[in-house]
């Protein structure tokens, strides 16, 4: 082993430190893993409105990340309402209130899917095998 002194950007240091705490590993082990396989997935490229939700996942232990990755959006009525609004939008028939509702539902759906995907990416980075989406 060789010792190396390294200056890290604060945001990367914090993310690696949070990962170390969440996985109950030493900071050194997490940093070595990051050097070997690359850094954890980044939430910084996501739209600003979703970054806090994704950043919070960095601090979760693996079992909690599995729950997020496996979470199903099972509200059939909500899915049907979203589809109805999409259809009305395609036909140019949305009221102002419906347009706001569609935007809200789209943001909720985007947040849900981004969190699922980010949780799966974190689990993969932490060394887990991720099954195909239909088997999660």
How would you spell out the order of helices and strands? HHHHHH
Main β sheet profile: none
Q: Please state the oligomeric state of the protein chains shown.
A: single chain
**Number of distinct beta strands:** 0
Strand proportion, as a percent range, falls in under 5%
Distance between the termini: 39 Å
User: Helix fraction?
Assistant: 55-70%
The low-confidence parts are: none
Global mean pLDDT = 91
- Counting helices, strands and paired strands, the structural category is mainly alpha
Separate helix tally: 6
Shape: elongated
What is the alpha-carbon Rg in Å? 19 Å
Task: Characterize the structure shown.
The longest helix has 30 residues, at 96-125. This protein has helices at 10-23, 27-37, 48-57, 62-70, 76-90, 96-125. The termini are far apart. The protein is built from six helices and no strands. With 136 residues, it is mainly alpha-helical.
Can you describe this structure in just a few lines?
It is built from six helices and no strands. It has helices at 10-23, 27-37, 48-57, 62-70, 76-90, 96-125.
């Amino acid at each position: 082993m060789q010792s190396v002194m390294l200056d890290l950007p604060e945001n990367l240091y914090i993310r690696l430190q949070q990962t170390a705490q969440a996985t109950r590993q030493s900071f050194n082990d997490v940093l070595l893993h990051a050097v070997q396989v690359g850094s954890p997935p980044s939430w910084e490229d996501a739209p600003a409105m979703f970054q806090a939700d994704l950043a919070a996942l960095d601090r979760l232990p693996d079992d909690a990340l599995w729950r997020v990755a496996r979470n199903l959006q099972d509200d059939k009525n909500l899915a049907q309402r979203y589809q109805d609004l999409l259809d009305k939008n395609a036909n140019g028939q949305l009221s102002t209130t419906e347009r706001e509702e569609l935007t809200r539902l789209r943001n909720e759906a985007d947040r849900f899917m981004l969190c699922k995907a980010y949780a799966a990416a974190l689990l993969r980075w932490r060394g887990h095998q991720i099954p195909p989406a239909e088997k999660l």
